[in-house]
């Protein structure tokens, strides 16, 4: 997952409104959004068994982006997809879970992990000290820290803000976001260790690098304050495929921790 834009706790009807693009090698196998045996809803990476974004009907949500530091990538690192799966299948608060992950952050290549439960959302990166609580409002994240002003992050937030003002309610209309293929100006490209031509190629919201890498799916999550959740995924690779689930978050008593 390489670009996520979302509105958190700042809408009269929705607790969370989120659109996310997953960028991956086209040959890496995965299954579409579905219900896992563990009870949560997510797509599945068939290579390592993890996922990039998911939601448990108990009210637990998690999503992941890579923190891009190409020169320090390790083939021996553990799969980052297990971090999302771990939270969805755990019985820990967002803070407790991220504290657990913090102690073994060195085992993974760079990542940003967003976890939410009830009215709490937190984000943690293994390239930054500490766990941050996500404030109410509009946010976006790509392959650096939350709200780092890369061109695609700025444009994603601007597009989403206009979308909110137009008061769209249909889940299909949200799938039209994060589809821009406009490349960033050379002077505004970040430096993440990629060769210049690749840094340029991945600077758009929707990515296509020749026939081997790019945006493989777009996912929408709409979570109402009353507990209703709709998730819809549009999978672009290897062919167009759509999956949608709807469920209600189960009522739970507040945690003591």
UniProtKB/TrEMBL annotation:
Q: Which Pfam families match?
A: TANGO2 (PF05742)
Q: What is this protein called?
A: NRDE family protein
Give the species this sequence originates from.
Negadavirga shengliensis
């Amino acid at each position: 997952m390489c670009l996520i834009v979302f509105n958190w706790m700042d809408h009269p009807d929705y607790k969370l409104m989120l659109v996310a693009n997953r960028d991956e090698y086209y040959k890496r196998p995965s299954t579409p959004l579905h219900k896992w045996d563990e009870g949560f809803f997510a797509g599945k990476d068939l290579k390592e068994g993890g996922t990039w974004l998911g939601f448990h009907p108990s009210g637990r949500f998690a999503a992941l982006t890579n923190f891009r530091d190409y020169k320090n990538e390790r083939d021996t690192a553990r799969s980052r997809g297990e971090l999302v799966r771990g939270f969805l299948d755990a019985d820990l608060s967002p803070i407790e879970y991220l504290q657990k992950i913090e102690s073994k952050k060195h085992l993974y290549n760079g990542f940003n992990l967003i976890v939410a439960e009830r009215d709490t959302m937190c984000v943690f990166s293994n390239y930054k000290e500490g766990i941050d609580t996500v404030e109410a409002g509009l946010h976006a994240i790509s392959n650096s820290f939350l709200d780092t002003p890369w061109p695609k992050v700025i444009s994603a937030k601007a597009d989403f803000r206009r979308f909110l003002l137009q008061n769209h309610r249909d889940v299909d209309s949200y799938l039209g976001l994060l589809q821009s293929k406009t490349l960033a100006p050379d002077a505004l490209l970040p430096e993440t260790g990629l060769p210049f031509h690749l840094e340029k190629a991945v600077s758009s919201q929707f990515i296509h690098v020749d026939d081997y890498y790019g945006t493989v799916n777009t996912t929408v999550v709409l979570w109402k304050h009353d507990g209703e959740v709709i998730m819809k995924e549009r999978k672009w690779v290897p062919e167009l495929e759509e999956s949608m689930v709807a469920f209600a978050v189960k009522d739970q008593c507040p945690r003591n921790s």
